[in-house]
Design brief:
Oligomer: single chain
CATH class: Mainly Beta
Distance between the termini: 50 Å
CATH topology: Umud Fragment, subunit A
Largest sheet: 8 strands, antiparallel
Strand content: 25-35%
Number of helices: 2
Radius of gyration: 17 Å
């Protein structure tokens, strides 16, 4: 099978066109910012057009930030400002307005074909319980690596 690469701008212009026509889009995830919830090249997501009733802490959405398309989780709402963050990026946040949201993730499909419905209450409960644990795990591991580096690499 021949593989053809296209620019992100062209790719996401097509995705937006499909979403704007009211249809869903299935994409294979690229990148590690949402690890471990979404694994690079392994998981697929089904995007559906955004509607206001979907707006809720914990949704994963495709949005535009600084002229880039990003797929991250909504972590807070403050008046008209929405804060998104990748699960694997404890220090990086994107601040956008609701108008910048293109679509939300309706389903996550694992490599073995298991489908997670991202609109179900259990999805939000798991996120609320798991996210602080993983965030602290990331920070702890970075601290350990830093101490290891200082103790063994710099001292040599």
């Amino acid at each position: 099978m021949a593989v053809k690469e296209i620019s992100n701008n062209l790719f996401f212009a097509n995705v937006e066109s499909i979403i704007n026509s009211g249809n869903s889009v299935e994409l294979k995830v690229k990148g590690t910012s949402m690890y471990p919830a979404l694994r690079n090249g392994k998981h697929k997501v089904v995007l559906v057009p955004y509607r206001k009733e979907f707006l809720r802490i914990g949704i994963i959405a495709l949005f535009i930030h600084n002229q880039k398309h990003i797929l991250h989780r909504l972590v807070s709402i403050d008046n008209n400002i929405l804060t998104f963050q990748g699960d694997n990026l404890p220090y990086v946040k994107e601040y956008i307005e609701e108008k910048d949201i293109i679509a939300i993730v309706e389903f996550i499909i694992t490599p073995d074909g298991k489908v997670t419905d991202c609109k179900k209450q259990w999805f939000f409960i798991k996120n609320k319980l798991w996210r602080p644990i993983y965030k602290n795990h990331i920070l702890f591991m970075r601290k350990i690596k830093s101490l290891f580096y200082k103790a063994f690499v710099i001292s040599n």
